[in-house]
Amino acid sequence: MLLNASGCLDALTAPEVARSLDGFVTKTITPEPREGNPPVRIAETNAGMLNSIGLANPGRERFLTESLPTLRELGVPLWVSVGGFSAAEYAETCATLEGVEAIELNLSCPNVDEAPDSAAAIVSACRAATSLPLYAKLSPSAWDIAEAARAIEAAGADGLSLVNTLRGLALDERTLLPRLGRGTGGYSGPALKPVALAAVYACSAAVGIPIVGMGGVQSGLDVLELIAAGASSVALGTILFSDPAAPARIRSELAAETAARDLGHPLDARGAAHSSLQMGVSDFGNGRGKKPGNGRKVTA
Predict the structure, then answer these.
(1) Is 109 considered catalytic here?
(2) Of 94, 109, 126, 203, which is the active-site residue?
(3) Structural domain contains residue 67
(4) CA-CA 20 to 30 A from 297: which of 101, 131, 229, 259?
């Protein structure tokens, strides 16, 4: 149930943290190596963090021959984040992957130019290239994220990852110039949580595929709230930078929050936020009411 958000954990330098999760999501892999954006790449803000890494990665060939074999030694299920600058590039990488738990399609990185193809077109191309589970990672900036989710489901996605970072800007207090080398960057941290909740809430009511919720998660209660909004798995992001031991703490807090609500399992709260308009949340513990989606999830 607990994953890391792509790019928020280097499993090769912190393998014990990766093993404390139920699955590890790699940094986004592109066909060719990328050095990433110029420094400065990270800037802290009052309520979160801006990053402008720019999809720095060794490229598909080195990932497959060097990184992936080492990651397999962790003994945890692996999700590979795939990026590209056209539907064909995404599909080519997906076709090379075997023996991983799932593929997460990074369709919304705010720090690079996006592929001109629509998200649905990219998913469709990848679906034709692989039988592995495909999760589409979407931006909360979409005008109608539920409509985007429906199109992606129709194109063959097996799940959604919600949400990616928001584009943000921080200025130097003295010079009033952008603090990041590229100017803007992806905004993450506690302030992203209400945005993530809204996206999960909207999409879970619109589609029948499972959702990995992420954005601003710092506690067990944050995890339970994303589940109540409709997520079936949750990923930890920025918190892993400041608190690498967060997975164990959050599991303990989640168990306490679940017990305090007389629920047998955290997933018993799935969709509770949707039902509260018609019935008490506790009714879900008795199996009553309709939960969004079909309840399927990849075991991670």
Answers:
(1) yes
(2) 109
(3) yes
(4) 259
